[in-house]
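Question thread 4412

I'm putting together a teaching handout and wanted feedback from people who do this every day. The idea is simple: show students a protein as raw sequence, then show them the structure tokens that encode its fold, then repeat with a second protein so they can compare. Below is the first pair exactly as I plan to print it.
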Amino acid sequence: QLQLVESGGGLVQPGGSLKLSCVLSGITENYYSIAWFRQAPGKGREGVSGISTYGDNTNYADSVKDRFTISRDNTKNTAYLQMNSLKPEDTGVYYCGAVILGPGGGSRVPPLNMAEEYDYWGQGTLVVVSS
């Protein structure tokens, strides 16, 4: 059973930076896309960024483009989300999700509005952007 554990959240002032990590364990497949989603208080889950198995394809929500960077280190079974120039509207619980793909899906990353494609989720890490 694939398990994901997020870390790195916290309280940061507007304009600050945080780096989130998502560690995967129980991996038995070689091809899986990973994405970050977030949920603000009183709102639904929103796709933030996704990355393919090979790391050659990524996608970003318009609201975070040019501020957030997703990456992964398959040797460490870890994905990252570097968040810069944080804004109060970035506040929320950040979750990482993983979807197992076949060998032909190494460069695939599902659209961010397809959260239902992701089969495995972490417990989330809270990010609060406030002065």
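The second pair follows. I'd like the answer to focus on this one:
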Amino acid sequence: QVQLVESGGGLVQAGGSLKLSCAASGNSFNAMGWYRQAPGKQRELVATITSGGRINYADSVKGRFTISRDNAKNTVYLQMSSLKPEDTAVYYCNARNLPYTYWGQGTQVTVSS
């Protein structure tokens, strides 16, 4: 059974940093990544990374967030820097072996101004 366990969310002041982690169990995945959902908004892509290291970022986080993964540990990370209040959201880990996709339970990130 696939499980994605996220950690690292919290409250931070604008300009600060946080690092999210997502440990996957039950399978290895071609692609892993992070999405986020702010109150009243749709879930949106933050960043994804393939097992081969191909990376995609949302324009809103380019230059501020860095995604990485440790294939041996089946874990994906999201280093978030220069955080802004508009980054406040629930961040969800995502793992895919198409056509299957899996989601973590979400971790809250709150950026205060």
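Top answer:
Good format. For the second protein you could add a caption like this: The chain is about 0% helix and 60% strand. Residues 2 and 27 are 6 Å apart (CA to CA).
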